[in-house]
Amino acid sequence: xxxxxxxxxxxxxxxxxxxxxxxxxxxxxxxxxxxxxxxxxxxxxxxxxxxxxxxxxxxxxxxxxxxxxxxxxxxxxxxxxxxx
Length: 84
What we know:
Elements: H1 2-17, E1 29-33, E2 38-43, H2 46-53, E3 60-63
Antiparallel strand pairs: 1-2, 1-3
């Protein structure tokens, strides 16, 4: 019985500390290196991607097809004052 409770507690602790996969940052641009078949999606701006991929690296840049921008924060409206 103790073993079962210990295993259940260990599983619950592991689930509580696990990170969600969708919490990983998603970047808008990817560098494609065709000569080595590599893709690196780690750039917020197109210029960052170009600065890394150009030159001796021989890469090109494009938008990340899996990029999903963070949802905008809801706009809080001020409460209306009562006249009187």
